[in-house]
Design a protein that fits this description.
alpha+beta, three-stranded antiparallel beta sheet, 3 strands, 23% helix, binds zinc ion
């Protein structure tokens, strides 16, 4: 699937804004609020969407886990 570059950039901006709103002081686990979080690469279909693993509760989450956008499988700009 071809993704137009403009859409990709817009999506990166969207996720950047979401991350800053959610985690102004750095990424925290939505399950246990631990700040000890390791990056786990990116979503395969949405490269702007970062994935993480919590070292506190050993659970995985991503930029949208626990937000109104969770389960959203379209690019955010759609
Ligand atoms: Zn956790």
């Amino acid at each position: 699937m071809m993704i137009p570059l403009q859409n990709l950039l817009d999506d990166h901006k969207c996720y950047e804004v979401i991350r800053q709103l959610r985690w102004p002081d750095g990424v925290r686990c939505p399950h246990c609020s631990a700040a000890a979080v390791t990056k786990q690469g990116r979503d395969t279909t949405q490269p702007a969407r970062r994935k993480y693993r919590c070292q506190g509760c050993d659970r995985y989450f991503d930029d949208l886990t626990g937000t109104v956008f969770a389960g959203h499988h379209q690019p955010l700009s759609v």
